[in-house]
Structures are given as structure tokens and as C-alpha cells.
Design brief:
flat, mainly alpha, three-stranded antiparallel sheet, 37 helices, about 60% helix, 3 strands
């Protein structure tokens, strides 16, 4: 029996021999929950003072520095163990002495540690599950080495070398860990000292840190950025109880991810600010580059004065260091400029410009932007711009001019912005500042159009509007094309403020147009009224703006101006405004376009007034000779009840058949052609679905045959599947819709297979069909599908012919479908290209 263990209390002992401990570990490989919680609680306390009863001759074993593990790694690398490690005399503990360890808490009480696991948890900071994982890894490595040796002895040396290389790479990935964006290596990332159910947030963060896919190839993905902040922010409260447990390597890794600069990380500065506070609370000293970023984050998060004070204090450590010199002073220029301290910003910029090899005159742009917003410093902004221009010389780019022009426009200094643009266009040869009349080279719509186009393209819409107002005061009115471009850009921005500005400018142009028309009419009558005729009340101005300078646009509206407003009102469902716009258009003496007519038709239908839409169509086409297009007939077919109502009466369905055939007749006889591929696909689709829902099967067959001749249309398989399923789109992923689509697909596949078999029996090569043969096959499938829908697939052709003839006569295409009249086909063809199968 081993000697009695030394202990403070000689009357009691907790001695358990090593063989019993080994047996217990074999029976219970996983630590008991109470033991894990106990170790976790100890880990959260201050570092303990270990007092062994006798001198420790073994020492705390670090699993990663175990001699056996080193030998195994050396064998995997095909070499020998570390000679230094093998030459050192191995310290063997005295087998006749048992060592007991004790722990003293902060209150001075001592208690004996139960086993090696508890000793490792306190002395090394490793959790039990970590030690178990390392032990299992060591056993797996030993087994792998033995397997490779057996393979080499068995004559499989090449394969063994290949497997050894793969295993070495896997070890390198697991132990060397992550690779940062600058090829820095991060080891096995883990936050020790936290375990138990109350530390689930730490476990989640550790799981994230150990993930191999994080920061792959040194570039964080959007998922990495989101999940890093998610897990870290959730664990912050628990970590704050023991910041000391966070290894510096983990802090740096978190910093590397959260400070990643890119559009995928919009909250970058907020995260850096929080991380900086936590690192300061943990007592960490930030690196120089981290200090600069921390100051910038503090400034952006609203602590401007504090950030500038921190920047001033770092002048010795950061402002004089060659690695951070330029970044430090540039940061000062930006912060002081935004804070309004342009004098200090100028001093910081001078420090950079006077340095050797560090100067870039573009650092003056923030000062120009800050100085141009105040009238008192406007001339300072102009002098700074001229100074930058002189320093850059020929190196000044168009983008530099854009920055300067945008700065002056943002400060409402349009004259200075105009001079900068003139400098860019004429290399400073023309001076326009202070001039009442602008030179001819500047005062023309061509020059103004180039500037407005550039401003609109850059997204500076407010600046473009300021230019319009300023130049009109100088006697230069912008062209309608330029203002329509500005209106369209405001509408596309899809903001409430932008829509309001677009509407105001468009109606200003409309008022100018109506005033011009009224003046022209009265001039024709040799009258000169005191006031302009205003039947719609459109020229009346808002009385709330009396006494304020008001901009009256001198540019007259065009059809495009009305079309832009009409499309916007229709998409927003503003039917009343659209009616007002339509009345103004009728008085503007602009030829009615089909586009504006289509928007009004759509608006009437959406507003539940299909009768007014049809009446307007008839009036415009018959009385005003407006030529419709494909969109006009799409709007007409959408006025039918089958496309508007869910529940319909029998009379409505019968009326839909009659009106649908009438619209088809008008569509064929009208003089128009397709102007876009979308119309070429969408109009036939609308017609076929409308007749299918109205159950006008004979009209549907006639429409398909007519469109084949006049449109060159062949239904794509996707449309056939939708018609078979009875659903207007394949993108709706409801359970019922998916079932219907699957059934429709089976029907179409069967019909195509039958058509191919018939072609094969007729001697055709079904694997190399021509375009015309494919189109004919698809039309045949469509007609068979229509007969299936009508439950008339078994009827003979002579039985169906009377109904088809009647439908063709109603639709005005009898001579085209049954007679093959070449003259009518040529006269009513709607495409200028040969028939083709539309792409899916």
C-alpha cells in the first residue's frame, strides 16, 4: 500500500490510488456536471495560489507541450524528435511519494484539490472538455502514425507519403488556425475559463472562432461580419466579468474582422468603438494603427470634442512616427474640417504638404468643403481650391474637379461651382465670376447640358437644380431634355422628397407650356389680355410663398414630361392627379402619344372604371387619330371582368367573350408593330390567358393561329405549362400552385412526346428539328391543350370547324386564318422580322 498522503488534517484522508483513478476515468470518460461547474466557478475567481503539501516534482503538464505529442508530430513530419528535448534528462517522479495539491481562496480558506482534472483547470485555465479533446487528438495522431508505418512496411510507401502530407496539412489548419488579410496567422482561437450552462454565449463565440470557414483566404465574408458581431455582442456581458481570460490573439482576430472596410460592413465604426472600449477595460494597449481607427470611430459615433482631444494628445506618439505620420495628420484634417475648425485643419494640412515624400494636395478637399458652407470663409475655400489646383497642376483629374464643384454647390455657391467647371472645361482660360453676362462659350444650352448631365449622372440632383435656377437668372434656360432627365432621376430615387421635387418641377414646366399655348392662341386672335387664360387653375401660385423669391421655370413641358408624371401617378394609384394631368395635356396642344393614353387606361382600370377606359380608347383612336400599340391592347384586355373580378356572373363571361373578340379585331386592323421583346411575349400571353379564363376555346384557337401568322409567335414551353396549370406565373411557390404546375408539366411533356412520335413516324429527325418545325410542333401542342381544356379532344375537325369559322369572323381574321390572304397578312403583320420561337 502506498504511503499515507500528507495533508493538513491527519485524522482524515481523501487518498485514492492511481489505479483506482484510472479505472474510474475509464468508466466515466466525461466529467460530471457538478465537477465542471465547480471548475468554472473557480476559473472566474482571481488567480489562485497553489500550495502543494510537498515539493512538486511533476509540474503542471501542458497537453500541447507533452513529450509524447512532440515525438508524434516529429514522426508525422518524417523526422526525429527534437534533439534538445531528447537530450534533456527526463524527470521521473518518485513513485513512493504521493503529492496532494491545495487551493487557497480569496478569504484564506484552503481545501484539497480532488484530482488532476481540477488541478489542470485551476493552474492551466483549461476546461475539462478541452483536455479531453486534446487527449483524444493525441490518441488519434498516434494511431495514424502507426497506420502509416504499417503501410510503409507493406510496400505502400508512396500512398503513405501522400496521406502523411494530407494529415500534416490538416494539422496546420487546426493548430495554425486562421490567416488574416495581411497573411498574419492566428493560432487555435479559444476563450478559456468559461464553462457551464450559464456561459452559453461564450460557447457560441468559441464555436464561431474555431470554425474553419471564417476568414477564408484572408477575406471576411458578409456572413463572417454579421455572425462575429452577433456572437461577440451576446457574450460581452459575461466576458466583462473576467476580461483577463480573453487572449490577445482573440482580441486581434475580432478587431481584424470587425474593422474590415467595405460595403458589407456598414456598422464598422460603431463596432470598432465598442470593441475599443472593451479592450481598454481589459487593460490592453492598442497598436498605433488601432489607436488611429479608435479615434476616428469615437469621432463618428458623436464624441467629436473627445476624439479631437485624443488626437491632439497623440501628436508625439502617432504624429511623429513614420508609419502613422500621414494617416495621423490626414485624420486631423478630416475631423477638424467636419468640426468646423478650419484653421487647425489648415495647419494639419500644411504639416503634410511641407513634409518630404508624404504630401498629396487632395488633402485640402475637406477644408474646401468645410469652408464653402459659411459666407465668412467662402473666399478662404476659393483660395484653398486655387492652391490645390496649382499644386496638382496637370495631375488634377476630373474627379478632383467634381469634388470641388460638389462642395461649392453644397454650400449654395453656384457661381464658384460654375467657375470651377469652366476651369475644368477651358483650363482656366475664362473667368465668369462677378460677370453679369456670361461669355458665349458658356451661355448656351450645349454647355449647360454637359454640366447638368454630369451632375445628374453623379447623383447630385439638388446641385443640378441649383444650376438650373442660377443659369436661368443669367438668361440661359435649360432644354426640356435636360429637365426631363432631372425629373426622371428624382422619380427613380424613390424618396418622398425627390418625388415632391420632381412633381413641382414638372408642373412648373407644364404651366410654362400652357402659358405659351395661351399666348399663341391670343396672338392668333390679335388680342393682348391683361392676364393669361387659365381654365384649369394651373398657373396659380401658392399664396403661402408670397414675399419670397420664386422660381418660375421658363422651359416648356414636352410629351415626355407628361409621360413621366403619368407613369408615376399610375404606379402610385393617384387617379385624381392623373385626371388633372390628362386635362392639362388636352390643353397643351401636344400630339397625344400612346404611352400617355396607356397610363390613363391603366389608371381607370385600377380605379374600377373600365367603362371610362374603353370610352377614352375609342375617343382617342377614332376622334383624335391616336395610334395604339401593344400596351394599349394589353390595357384593354385587362378591362375585362375575367382579369379584374374573382367572382363573375354568367352574363359577364358572355360579355367578356364578345368584347375580347372585338379588341382582338381592333388589334389586328390597327397600324402598329412590336417595339420590344417584352411586348412580343406579354401581349400573346395576356390574350391567351384572357380567353382561357373566359372559356372562349374556339376564339383561343383562332387567336393562336392568327398570332402565328401575324406575330411569328410560337408559345414557349413555360407558357404552355402555365396554361395547362391554369396559373399565370410559375414563381408563386404555394403548395397548391406547385401541385398544379407539376400536373401541367406532365400534361405538356406527354403532348410533346406524342408530337415527336408523329414526326418520327413521318420520317423527320426529331433530334435536329428546324426553327419552323419546332414552332409548328409547339402550336400543335397548344391546340391539343386547348381541346383538352374544352373537353373536345375526341371531336373530329369537321365537327369543330363551324365554331372556329364563327370565331374567326367575329375576330375579323377569317381571310387570314382560313383563306391565307397574302395581301391582308402583309398589311397587318406586326413584326419586321421572320417568325421565331421566343426564348424561355
Amino acid at each position: 500500500m502506498p504511503p499515507r498522503a500528507l495533508a493538513l488534517d491527519r485524522t482524515k484522508t481523501s487518498y485514492v490510488c492511481q489505479s483506482c483513478i484510472s479505472n474510474l476515468q475509464a468508466l466515466h470518460p466525461n466529467p460530471q456536471p457538478w465537477l465542471t461547474r465547480h471548475a468554472s466557478n473557480l476559473a472566474r475567481r482571481p488567480p489562485p495560489r497553489l500550495q502543494p503539501a510537498v515539493r512538486n516534482t511533476r509540474g503542471a503538464q501542458d497537453p500541447l507541450s507533452n513529450k509524447k505529442l512532440q515525438q508524434t508530430l516529429a514522426q508525422l513530419q518524417g523526422g526525429r524528435p527534437n534533439p534538445e528535448a531528447s537530450s534533456r534528462p527526463e524527470e521521473k517522479p518518485n513513485q513512493d511519494i504521493t503529492i496532494n495539491y491545495f487551493n487557497q481562496d480569496i478569504n484564506g480558506r484552503r481545501h484539497q484539490l480532488r484530482n488532476d482534472e481540477e488541478f489542470s483547470a485551476i493552474s492551466g485555465g483549461l476546461d475539462t472538455d478541452v483536455e479531453s479533446a486534446i487527449s483524444r487528438l493525441e490518441a488519434q495522431m498516434v494511431n495514424t502514425v502507426e497506420m502509416l508505418k504499417r503501410m510503409e512496411k507493406g510496400g505502400m510507401r508512396d500512398k503513405a507519403e501522400k496521406l502523411r502530407g494530407r494529415f500534416k496539412r490538416s494539422l496546420r489548419l487546426q493548430y495554425k488556425g486562421k490567416i488574416g488579410p495581411e497573411d498574419e496567422e492566428y493560432g487555435l482561437l479559444r476563450i478559456p475559463g468559461f464553462s457551464g450552462p450559464k456561459q452559453r454565449t461564450i460557447a457560441s463565440l468559441n464555436k464561431f472562432l474555431s470554425r474553419e470557414s471564417v476568414v477564408k483566404d484572408g477575406i471576411p465574408t458578409h456572413k463572417d461580419l454579421v455572425e462575429c458581431w452577433k456572437f461577440y455582442s451576446a457574450a460581452r456581458k459575461t466576458l466583462s466579468s473576467a476580461w483577463g481570460n480573453m487572449p490577445r490573439e482573440v482580441w486581434d482576430f475580432l478587431w481584424m474582422i470587425l474593422s474590415w472596410e467595405g460595403v458589407e460592413n456598414p456598422n464598422r465604426m460603431r463596432h470598432i468603438y465598442v470593441l475599443t472600449k472593451d479592450m481598454s477595460a481589459a487593460g490592453l494597449v492598442l497598436r498605433r494603427s488601432q489607436q488611429l481607427l479608435a479615434i476616428e470611430a469615437m469621432f463618428i459615433e458623436g464624441w467629436q470634442k473627445e476624439a479631437i482631444e485624443s488626437w491632439k494628445k497623440a501628436v508625439v506618439t502617432l504624429g511623429s512616427n513614420p508609419d502613422t505620420f500621414r494617416s495621423y495628420w490626414e485624420l486631423g484634417v478630416r475631423m477638424c474640417s467636419l468640426h468646423g475648425d478650419t484653421d487647425r485643419a489648415q495647419k494639419a494640412a500644411d504639416t503634410i504638404l511641407k513634409s518630404v515624400g508624404q504630401s498629396d494636395p487632395r488633402i485640402l478637399i475637406p477644408i474646401i468643403r468645410a469652408s464653402s458652407v459659411k459666407e465668412a470663409t467662402l473666399e478662404q475655400a476659393w483660395e484653398t481650391y486655387r492652391n490645390m489646383r496649382d499644386l496638382l497642376g496637370e495631375a488634377m483629374t476630373i474627379e478632383d474637379y467634381d469634388e470641388v464643384i460638389g462642395s461649392f454647390l453644397g454650400g449654395n455657391c453656384v457661381e464658384h461651382a460654375l467657375q470651377a467647371f469652366v476651369d475644368m472645361m477651358f483650363s482656366g482660360a475664362i473667368n465668369v465670376r462677378g460677370k453679369t453676362r456670361l461669355p458665349i462659350a458658356v451661355s448656351n444650352q450645349f454647355f449647360v447640358g454637359k454640366w447638368l448631365k454630369r451632375l445628374i449622372g453623379a447623383g447630385d440632383l439638388d446641385g443640378a437644380y441649383k444650376v438650373v435656377v442660377y443659369l436661368q437668372e443669367k438668361g440661359i434656360a435649360a432644354s426640356p431634355i435636360q429637365l426631363n432627365g432631372l425629373i426622371g432621376a428624382w422619380i427613380r430615387a424613390d424618396s418622398a422628397e425627390g418625388l415632391e421635387k420632381a412633381e413641382d418641377l414638372a408642373w412648373d414646366m407644364i404651366r410654362s407650356r400652357l402659358a405659351h399655348v395661351d399666348m399663341r392662341q391670343r396672338a392668333g386672335l390679335m388680342e393682348r389680355p391683361a392676364t393669361l387664360f387659365d381654365p384649369l387653375g394651373l398657373t396659380a401660385r401658392d399664396k403661402s410663398n408670397e414675399g419670397k423669391p420664386e422660381f418660375r421655370c421658363a422651359t416648356k413641358a414636352t410629351a415626355e414630361t407628361f409621360s413621366l408624371l403619368a407613369e408615376n401617378y399610375c404606379s402610385r394609384g393617384l387617379h385624381d392627379r392623373l385626371q388633372k394631368l390628362w386635362k392639362a395635356f388636352r390643353h397643351s396642344e401636344i400630339g397625344t402619344t400612346s404611352f400617355l393614353l396607356n397610363q390613363v387606361l391603366r389608371s381607370y382600370t385600377q380605379n374600377g372604371q373600365p367603362g371610362e377606359a374603353v370610352a377614352l380608347y375609342q375617343s382617342m383612336t377614332q376622334d383624335h387619330n391616336v395610334r395604339p400599340d401593344a400596351h394599349t391592347f394589353i390595357a384593354l384586355f385587362n378591362t375585362l371582368s375575367v382579369n379584374r373580378l374573382i367572382q363573375r356572373e354568367v352574363e359577364s363571361s358572355e360579355r367578356d367573350i364578345i368584347e375580347g373578340r372585338h379588341y382582338f379585331k381592333d388589334m389586328v386592323k390597327s397600324k402598329w408593330v412590336f417595339d420590344s421583346p417584352e411586348d412580343f411575349i406579354y401581349l400573346p400571353r395576356t390574350i391567351l390567358f384572357t380567353m382561357l379564363k373566359a372559356r372562349d376555346y374556339s376564339g383561343m384557337i383562332i387567336a393562336a393561329r392568327t398570332m402565328k401568322v401575324l406575330f411569328g409567335f410560337a408559345p414557349p414551353e413555360s407558357l404552355l405549362i402555365e396554361l395547362a396549370a391554369g396559373t399565370a406565373t410559375l414563381r408563386v411557390r404555394t403548395k397548391q400552385n406547385v401541385t398544379r404546375v407539376m400536373e401541367g408539366s406532365r400534361v405538356i411533356e406527354g403532348l410533346i412526346r406524342q408530337a415527336r412520335e408523329e414526326l418520327f413516324r413521318e420520317g423527320y429527325d426529331v433530334n435536329n428539328l428546324t426553327v419552323e418545325q419546332k414552332a409548328a410542333e409547339l402550336h400543335e401542342v397548344l391546340e391539343k391543350l386547348i381541346l383538352i381544356k374544352a373537353k373536345a379532344q375526341h371531336l373530329r375537325p369537321e365537327v369543330m370547324r363551324p365554331a372556329l369559322v364563327e370565331a374567326a369572323e367575329h375576330m375579323g381574321v377569317h381571310d387570314i386564318v382560313f383563306g391565307g390572304d397574302v395581301r391582308q397578312i402583309s398589311e397587318h403583320r406586326k413584326v419586321v422580322r421572320p417568325p421565331m420561337v421566343p426564348e424561355e
